[in-house]
Amino acid sequence: MIDLQLKVDPFPIVEPLVIRLQTVQASRFPAASENDAMLVYHDENIADFDVGGFSLRVHTTDAQSLDGDVVLVTPGRNTLHRLIRASSRHNTLLITEQCDQKCIMCSQPPKKHHTDLFDYFLQAVLLAPAQTTIGLSGGEPLLHKARLFEFLEKAQSARPDIRFHILTNGQHFDKRDRTSLSALNMRSILWGVPIYAANAAAHDQIVVKAGAHKTLQKNLAILGTCGAVLELRTVLLNSNVLHLEDLANHITKHQSFASVWAIMQLENIGYARMNWDREFYDSSFSFVDVAKAIDLATGRGMETLLYNFPLCSVPSEYRRFCVASISDWKQKYLSTCDGCSLRSTCTGFFEWYSENKGFKGIVAQ
Amino acid sequence: MNVWPLQFRKIGENDLLFSDDSGSFFRSDDLFLDRYIQGALTHEDAEFLAYNGQAFETDGDFAFSGFASRWAKRINTAGDLSYFILVPTLRCNLMCDYCQVSRAAENASGFDWDRDTLEQVINLLDKQKANQVKVEFQGGEPLLRLDLLDAIRNFCRSRFEAAEFVVCTNLQTVSEEAWQFLEAPDTHVSTSFDGTSKFHLKQRTKTTTVQRQFEANLDVALTRLGVDRVSALPTIDPSDCPDPAAVIHAFAARSLTSIYLRRINYQGFARKKYGFDSALVDWRQYYRRFIAALIEYNTTADVPMEEYYLTHILRRILQSGHNNHVDLRNPNWLGKDLLVIDFNGQLYPTDEARMVSRIGKIDLSIGSLEDGIDANRVATLNSNVSNFDDPDCVHCAYKAYCGLDPIDDLSRYGRVDLPRHQTDHCKSHLDLFDYAFSLLYSADPTVQKSLAIWIGVPNYNPKIAPRTL
Amino acid sequence: MNKKFLIPSLVAAGFVGVHSSAAPVSGPKISNDTKTSMFEVFRQTHKYTLAGHSSHASHSSHRSSSGGGYKAPRATSPTPLYTPPTNRNGTSTPPSSILPSPPAAAARVLPGNSGAFQRIAKQVQTALMAYGYYNGAIDGVIGAGSKSALSRFQADYNLKVTGTITPQVLDAFGIAAK
Q1: pLDDT, tens digit (0-9, with 9 covering 90-100), for B135-147
Q2: What's the number of domains chain B is made of?
């Protein structure tokens, strides 16, 4: 696992601080900014970065790997957060931990409290490497949509090269948001919205919210007619595997403006870990229902992808739909994978994947 | 519930195909038609139509916007000019029976671009808004003027973010220099190969020496460029056509996976030599025989094969937004995103328009390099390019998938305003769509296997072609 | 072309001519309350490709924030167990061209912190002066003079030489960081 937090020595700040770490002397940032902190000392265990004459001492064995990272240092806490890792394309900002749904496979169960970090996120985005895609996730980011839209507008006007990938449950749009949405450059925002079934009752049961499906249909139409680039996301579950083919039909008919449909394997953390035995669908054992859905959606021209499916769990003729989707910092391979010829293109497994409760058909190829 | 207007057409013995303007379709029967006409749809009918995206509750609801998006994607918007067919020379080193454009002798003069023309072509390319371009070199035999091809390609590579080149050559005489030119990864070769050696010899090369030369060059092209960058198109004479299985095996033997069957287009020399209208029935029969052979071939082939146009038709039916550069676009805008520049600097909206003009039927040029594009002529040509309001098309069940071809109508009948059902374009496409739908509703697993290949999915899901009950 | 044509004009071929043309695309009427018509919106969407589309790089990231989030700053939590970065993702530094200089509009970094920083910096400058390493202004700004003084002090007292105010420097001077 790659650490997204690193230990730091006590640092005399009273408010959170966003800085960009630099390890290379020849400055690549000509307009020396107060946001930039240069590496002034390092040994095998620590690295000191010069923040306005003060040493920010980071405990790391590899100072160079932090070059260009944008980090958040918080008063009174002995860790910094690597908000944007310059060497990764998996950077996600957690907007809030609040949510109005309680999806049975949620990997990040909601919490009551919310702290508004938008101002720091904005600073971080301004410091990000060019052309970065930054994820905005939660919880449900749209619960704070006024602040979110304000953040997006400012970020886009200062850094038009940055792309955003916003994960939202799609429950919180209304017609009045058209104005806010049309003020944004919708072409550089990808909206990832989950839909679990065409059948309203089945969907509502999975997200544990009555009426969610109906609202979702209405709001997907709003997003679509505002020119949103849409990624529909469906986590494969025992609860919806038999609904998948109908969902393929539904999407190709009613959300035909979507750019891509992602069918996703379960990530065993959060509620999903709790509900694993009931909901994990072993697609290495039977792929028929997933296959029918792919055949229908792709045949009708909807780009369909499989996220989080290890290649050996998928019949060879469907492997071309697989994407190495698991973020670098929480990805692992199993001992079975040693010597597998497909390893370099395989998504692998979640760090917290448990072999004895997982796929039965994991075989080196 | 509101049902989007349905068109229908008889398919099979007892059934009807229903379709709407977004291209959603289903198969049902006379009883459904009666209920639809009488406004007596049952609850089950309504549920089915909603499931199939052919109905909505209220203006602007999700079913409405889903339909609107599918409909909108089918409309061909006139994009920026980004596809050029260039004819640097009309001279050719072959004399095929049915040459499409009265070609000029290999040693003739006055049939090539001169320096000024080249400069004007480059100026025109330079003025384009698009940041990518596709250039197709036609002829004559374009390899006779490798210098011009090279100049154009070099310019495009530096001027555009992305540029792609196709050389339409007979591969008869290819110098080492020409091979090196063709080997570039951004360059493709398109050639004619009339299905089998026997027919190619008969229709094009005439002598076995020339025929051997061609086949050797085709093999070199496939080896040096790779199969992905070579396409070979057979021209078929319906009155004397090669055995489908022989054609398929001739292509397969060369690892070619796509066959674009072209019926002889009666123009140029061909018009003088062959009859005109009699061949459509022969052609239909041959085409069906050919597809049947292809389906049989695909049941056991390691590397399956497609007929290019049928694949296009199937995808037009199933997928909103499946447009290619030329065929079945609606509206079929002329002189917008595609431009032909002839050897003499005349501009045409399509290659067919160049031919129709060349044989003296009607002047379809839309300007010249000297005078630029004549906007009025382009506008006039574009007055008949959409089937939305064509009185013969509005009730056609295939309207959403089809598109007009005024240039073909002109070349055959000298008019663009014939009743559609009297035109070859309409007759042959009605037949093609009938055939395509018969395949889509076929329960034959061998048909379904081929369909999956052509549609681009691992397995055919019959639900892609819905039916009531 | 001074050529004779069988059909003398487009009108003779049945083209209705430019005036009755420009047949507007007809179809479902779509209400829209923005400047862009829904038709255009759907066409745009259709043409959109994402950055790095060749490898689906942009939609390849499975975003869920499990474990990837950060605690709200005011929440307290035990110091996480320290593990060295695995660096499996490579530590290669990105080419300089992808690291932009911060735009002029970039927010100042220390808005809420400058007071605390200055107060401590002044204490350090004063101490350095008292120890005989520094004779510049006590202004709370750690510039070249202060840095040089810090380096010499650190070297003489066997501290890690960083030229910055480190926890050890503060300890040595008995300055509280808060």
Answers
A1: 999 988 999 999 9
A2: 2
Does residue A90 sit in helix, strand or coil? coil
CB B130 within 8 A of CB B82: yes
Q: Which long-range contacts (CB under 8 A, 24 or more apart) does B208-217 make?
A: B210/B94, B210/B172, B213/B172, B213/B173, B214/B170, B214/B171, B214/B172, B217/B171, B217/B172, B217/B174
With H, G, I as helix, E, B as strand and everything else as coil, classify residue B109: coil
| Domain enclosing residue B14, as ranges | 1-74
- For chain C, give every domain's residue range: 114-173
Q: Mutate which of C65, C117, C171, C173 to test chain A, going by most A C-beta atoms within 10 A?
A: C65
Question: Is residue B13 in a domain?
Answer: yes
Nearest CA to C149 among C174, C169, C119, C171?
C169
Q: Exposure string (b/e) for B79-108, b if CB count within 10 Å is 16 or more?
A: bebbbbbbbbbbbbbbebbbbbbebbebee
Instruction: Dig out the tokens for B353 from the structure.
Output: 């328009």
Q: Quick: pLDDT tens for B236-280.
A: 888 888 999 999 999 999 999 999 998 886 654 555 555 555 677
Chain B interface, best mutation among A254, A287, A292, by max B CB count within 10 A: A254
Residue B286 within a domain: no
Q: Which residue of B has its CA nearest to A215?
A: B62
B383:C27 CB<8 A: no
Tell me which CATH code domain A91-357 carries. 3.20.20.70
Question: Which among A79, A158, A147, A142 has a CA at the least distance from the CA of A116?
Answer: A147
In this structure, is the dihedral angle defined by the CA atoms of residues A186, A190, A192 and A198, taken in order, positive or negative? positive
Q: Point out the domain boundary residue: B39, B74, B109.
A: B74
Residue B450 lies in a domain: no
Domain ranges of chain A: 5-84, 91-357
Q: Report yes or no on B379 lying in a domain.
A: yes
Distance CA A261, CA A236 (A): 12
* Per-residue pLDDT tens digits for C101-131: 333 333 344 656 778 888 899 999 999 999 9
In 10 A of CB A347, how many CB atoms? Answer: 23
Place of tokens 């739908």: B437
Helix axes B406-413, B424-440, angle to 10 degrees: 130
Q: By CB neighbour count within 10 A (0-12 exposed, 13-18 middle, 19+ buried), where does A107 fall? A: buried
For domain C114-173, give the CATH number.
1.10.101
| Cα separation of the two ends of chain B | 20
Last residue of a domain, one of B74, B102, B124: B74
